[in-house]
Each structure stands twice: as structure tokens, then as C-alpha cells.
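#struct-pred
JK: can someone run the complex with iron/sulfur cluster? inputs below
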Amino acid sequence: MALTGIEIFKLLPKTNCKECGEPTCLAFAMKLAAGKAELSKCPYVSDEAKAKLSEASAPPILPVTIGTGERALKVGGETVMFRHEKRFENPPGFALLISDGMDDAEAGRRLGKFKQLQYERIGLTLRPDLIAAKCGSGDKAKFAALVGKVKQGSDGGIILMSDNPDIMAAGLAACADRKPLLYAATEENWEKMAELAKSSSCPLAVKADGLEKLAALTEKLTGAGVKNMVIDSGSRSLRQAFEDQIIIRSSALAKKFRPLGFPTIVFPCEMTDDPMKEAVISSMFVAKYGGIIVLSDFQGESLFPLLVERLNIYTDPQRPLATKEGIYDIGNPDENSPVLITSNFSLTYFIVSGEIETSRVPSWLLVKDTEGLSVMTAWAAGKFVADAIAPFVKKSGIADKVKHHKLVIPGYAAAESGGLEEELGDWEIQVGPREGSNIPAYLKTWKP
Ligand code: SF4
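RT: done, C-alpha cells with the ligand placed:
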């Protein structure tokens, strides 16, 4: 049973030292009970208290990692029902289905798509995460061959799909070092699947027919020593699958019901034959509350909107999207190319860099860290003013890249031109357009 806030408070040091970021131990205890704080934030909890608090302090939805290295995917770890309460933590993974029933050409085409369909946006690479290798043949050699091909052909995470433990073992032998997700333990095979998951240290997906049976099965697996689980309620109708996602999330968060406190896996690919409907269903699970979303195929026109939706929903609402501070070279600029400066609000960067590209005038773009604020807001907040811009320009190293010392500032920051000329000494400050759409015309007439 989870502890209440008062019970947790009794186990804390009660010194109100504030080092955990909360004003009092009681406030910290309340957040811990609500699953909105981590016990490790308090450095003074005794070992004895830690042991007692371990259940209360465990995340209500366990974070589970699939894969290794750079492409490892972490799902779960969520602490809120709604994004505006705090933020969503770990974006769901998109998985592409490949079956050993497909011929080599089709499997190869899908692997090619998995690699090819990725997009640069606001300095980030948006791409799918996993390949779900499914045994449709019932032949373990064929399945192992497919898994080998998937492993060779992609650095993404892998889901192994078979409810036959022998076939699963053959697939696992082909890619155990990539720490795949094993899908799935069921009422019939859970003991053998638990052994495979434990011996390979791989996460295990658990599937049952309905939430009650699912909770009973995860309890058995927990008792058998399996920790990292991903759950599938078995529903393949839109309405039931949607309801299940809501009930799973609210049971884990509001009721602290541990048997459902795991990230989920959902299968829009098994809910419709219409690719567009499948994309719409997937979009619903991005918002509510799919952990891994398995699609029957990837099409650029449906995958891209899903990736953008995921990016938007899993952006921290308290922190604007920001681009990294630095010098960005656009179109192979040289020592005679113009130097422009802007703020690091991602949308601003996206628009300004896009307009520079459109102009076809190779340029240097300095991006100043304004904590993700746009030029005008940053200027009003004192983050895009001469005193802040000048030290950045000096230490950026741009002076070594160009012969001229002319800096184009945004029209909205024109008031800073005098201050910048004073601060930067040998730089000439030029006031550029207010609107990004006027940048191409401005650059075409710019002279070093
Ligand atoms: Fe209390 Fe620990 Fe927070 Fe200090 S750090 S206020 S002792 S809970």
C-alpha cells in the first residue's frame, strides 16, 4: 500500500532545510505522496526511512528503457494526467511492423523507410523509434533470420513479437545485445517469458484480455522478479482501447495502483485497415496515453504529422522550445558573407534561417541564448540588449571568420544599435528588417 503524505512526513528529518526545493518537509512529503517529487532530492533521509519509503517514492508509472546507446527509448515515468499540470516526461515510441511472413523485398523496403523517414525541425531530428519484428510464420529459424536482418539494417530499438517462448528465444538470441522488448507474456506462457526476460535483462510486454486479468498477470510477474514491464490491455476496438488508456493512467496516478503502473503498448495497426484512420487513431494515443504505438507501415504524409504532434505535446509547457546558442553557417558562407544575429526562440530561428536559405546569400547566423524568448520579448525582458549581446558576439569567435566587422541586428532591436557600437568597438551595427519575410530582399543588396 502506498503511504499517505502524513505517514511519509513522519519518516522525514523535519528540519525544513529546503534543500529539496520545497519550503518544508511536509510540503515535500505531500509531493512525494502524489508522485510529483523524488526521494533522492532530500539528502538527509536515513537508510531505514528510505527502505520504508521506497514504495511511496517509486514513480507511479515505471520508466522502462528499450534498446541501448543513443537510440535507446525511455517510456513511462509519467506523473500527471494532463500536460498543463506539469509536463509529460517521455514521448511515446513509434514502431514499424515487419513480419517474417513478408518477402525479402517488402522487409527491405520497410527497413529502408524506417531509416529514410526522418526530419530536421527546429534543430531536432524527428524520427521513428522501433521496429516490431513479428513472427507470423511459426518458424523459429525464419523469425531469427528476420530479426538478424532488422538488427543489421537499423540502429533503432527492436520489439520481438511472438507468444511462443521457443520462437521468442530464437529471436532473442539474434539480438539480445540490443535489449529488445519481448512481446508478450500472456496467461498461458508467462513463466517461460519471465525467465527469458530475466536471463537477458530485457523488458517484457504483458498482454491480457481486459484490465483485471492484466493487473493479475503483472502481479504474478512482479512476484516472479520481473521489474521492467510494458502493458497491453488486449483491446483492439477504438472505444475500449481509449478507455483502457485513461483507466490505466488514472489508476496508477490517482489510486497508486501498482499492478497497472507501467507504460502501455498500443496497436493501431490491428484496429483498422485504412492507413489514414490508423494515423488518426495513433494521433489519439500520442495524446492519451500510449507508451509505444505500433503502425502497420510508415507513410511520410502521416508519420510527419505524428512526429510533430508528439514533439508539441511532449514539450515542457513551462519552457519554450529553444535552439542552441552558437554560430550557424547557412549556404557555405565565407569571410565576406553577412553576419546576422537573432534570439534562440526556435520558431524565430526556424523562420530567420529559412529566409536566409531562400535568399541564397550564404550567411553567418549568430543565435543568442535568450532562454527561448522571441526577439521582441527578449528585448523587453533585457535578454536581447547591448549588454547581453556584445559579450556573446565577442566570445562567439565570429570575428575570426569574417574580414568585415558588420553585424546585422533585427529591426525590432534597433534601439540597441548605439549601445552595441559602444560595446563592440570596431563593429559596425546595421539594422536589418523587422519581419523575417523581408530578409531575402535585404540580403540581396547587402555589401561587405
Ligand atoms: Fe526536509 Fe529533506 Fe526537504 Fe530538508 S531536504 S526540507 S530535511 S525533506
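RT: quick notes.
The pocket of iron/sulfur cluster is lined by residues 12-13, 15-20, 22, 25, 28, 42, 44 (CB under 6 Å).
The chain has 16 helices and 17 strands.
JK: thanks, will look after standup
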